[in-house]
Amino acid sequence: xxxxxxxxxxxxxxxxxxxxxxxxxxxxxxxxxxxxxxxxxxxxxxxxxxxxxxxxxxxxxxxxxxxxxxxxxxxxxxxxxxxxxxxxxxxxxxxxxxxxxxxxxxxxxxxxxxxxxxxxxxxxxxxxxxxxxxxxxxxxxxxxxxxxxxxxxxxxxxxxxxxxxxxxxxxxxxxxxxxxxxxxxxxxxxxxxxxxxxxxxxxxxxxxxxxxxxxxxxxxxxxxxxxxxxxxxxxxxxxxxxxxxxxxxxxxxxxxxxxxxxxxxxxxxxxxxxxxxxxxxxxxxxxxxxxxxxxxxxxxxxxxxxxxxxxxxxxxxxxxxxxxxxxxxxxxxxxxxxxxxxxxxxxxxxxxxxxxxxxxxxxxxxxxxxxxxxxxxxxxxxxxxxxxxxxxxxxxxxxxxxxxxxxxxxxxxxxxxxxxxxxxxxxxxxxxxxxxxxxxx
Length: 441
Prior knowledge:
The chain is an alpha+beta fold. Helices cover 34% and strands 22% of the residues. The strands form five sheets. Strands 17-16-13-14-15-12-18 form a seven-stranded antiparallel β-sheet. A five-stranded parallel β-sheet has the order 6-2-1-10-20, covered by helices on one side. Helix 1 packs parallel to helix 6 (116-128) and helix 12 (297-304) runs antiparallel to helix 16. The chain is elongated, with a radius of gyration of 26 Å.
């Protein structure tokens, strides 16, 4: 006779890409009951917001270069990203009916550029596979282990975790065999990533690396005139260079936007970790703006030092090196009058305009966050070493990457690892079970 109640119960807390991927892996195994809990009224809110400007899923560059975007954590992320590579991710999207294309920058997008159709198809697949969703359920921590016997049923008495949730119907306690945490970092808290999980894990003795803004803007000391006149304007065809703490000079071409408080945009985000570290070490970061990256210093010197006759300086710079508008305003904002009046010094400034950055913008404004659960507290399956049966995935792990599809790629990949880890944990023959409760593969 078959044993009754032949199932294992796994909670996934967090309905972003990492959590949904973990749920998909778990739901593919018969006999595993998967339940997703999220504090928000619906899942995937940050995912949908990120897709409003075009859903950048991953990147098509060579894998070694792709992996290098993960900085100091590439060694830990490499096995996950190799197992669920950008090409594999695109193939997985195809199974959802989502076709993709590679843009001119190498970034990969759905053909319709939208996130909502992909999320709808994914949720339909998960619900068809039996995944249950519980919205407006905020995780409050664990019930003390010694109270497990207070829960009815043999499966509850054998549960590895009894989880507490605040729900629309009051506080609930849920007994599960394993839990996957995919609660995000601390950016965009209004969409659910509010880092409320940090003290709950710290209470279990888990050291959390401080959460810091990543892919963020930085404050500069603008004059009132410059702020009022140029805030919101893009600065295109420019490069940013700065010396790192390691003494290595880092330079990137692209574009950024002048904000009311400083600078932001894709070029700034790509260097945000280096700029943040420089500010942390020195109290500020001095970057150099190359306003004419397509010309050598020698060519700029030749053009700027030509006699300008009766023409104004602004007319001279526009005709000789194409400097006008916000670029000209940046020169006037960052340089003293005597430098503006010296053609040689001005030419050098066009290739290396100094701009002091004072601080990162608040983490709530950042696209993503650095810090979180350190990999040193996890095993290779992303299970907390000190809390058996508890797995972590996504942005709540201690890693960071620039925009360009790298953030989503690592969230998907780590969600698969955590899901497989939880699956291996709950289906292990050595896992304790009450009399009469077995797992049928």
